[in-house]
Amino acid sequence: MGGPGYEYWVPDDTDARRLRGEKFAEGAERKPWFDLGRWRIEIQAPPGRLNDRFLVALSPSLGRDRSGEVQGFTLSAGTGDALATDGSVILFPTDPGPIAFTWPGPQRRLLFAGSPQGPRCRWRSTG
Fold first, then answer.
1. 92: which strand partners?
2. What is the pLDDT of residue 127?
3. Residues 44 and 72 grouped into a single domain
4. If you write DSSP's letter for every residue of 37-66 in order, what string do you get?
5. Domain region containing 99
6. Alpha carbons 120 and 127: distance in angstroms, whole number
């Protein structure tokens, strides 16, 4: 959401099919020492859901499309979500059990996020 003229736009209902809203720019100051946030992300769960899980990966850039630089991939064992960037594999496990996956490319860093408190990890590479 956002862009020039809509930096402070806020929807006034939860129905994403109708883009009704209001600009809340009152009190905002444009000074050279303030970074003006021109864009933001808003995520809305489908109506009637009790639980949702969102995984958002940002790859900002100026002047070029980077949409293909962050890719999700499927775990071959275990439950959770997985992402690959140019340099990293990021795992978001949902259960404390074993996870298995095929390394998607030339990444050299493995990151875990959102795992239950106090997990123990053991890494074993085959191949």
1. 81
2. 66
3. no
4. --B-----PPTT-S-----------SSS--
5. 67-112
6. 23
